[in-house]
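Hi there, hope your week has been kind to you so far. Thanks so much in advance, here it is:
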Amino acid sequence: MKILFNKILNSRLKLNQNELDEYLNDNAGTTFIDLQSVDSELIMGIENSTAPLGMGEDNEPPLGIPSFLWGCILGIIGILLVYIITDGDKDETKKALWGMLIWVGVWIVLYVGVFSTAALWY
């Protein structure tokens, strides 16, 4: 029964999307807010949100991975990815930057520690 309901719902939503596409092609300049203000059936089951790469909520990290880890593991590439995925969210980009800076700091401490220890042996 549940499978049948899902099939019917999916076919209705697909039909709705085709009708919506046709309506928007015929009526250029119409926006989602215009259709929402008149309670149009064309947008039934469709939300007015942009959710790039599955980020549906505010304050949600990119792809569910904390921005700090993006920067810590991937460095500059991670910072760039966070910036692109979050559409320029400065707070998330800053977290990725801190992740990269912490990783660089850890490597510097390890590098100095290893070489200073090695120098003591000679």
Summary: The mean pLDDT is 76. Residues 1-48 form one domain.
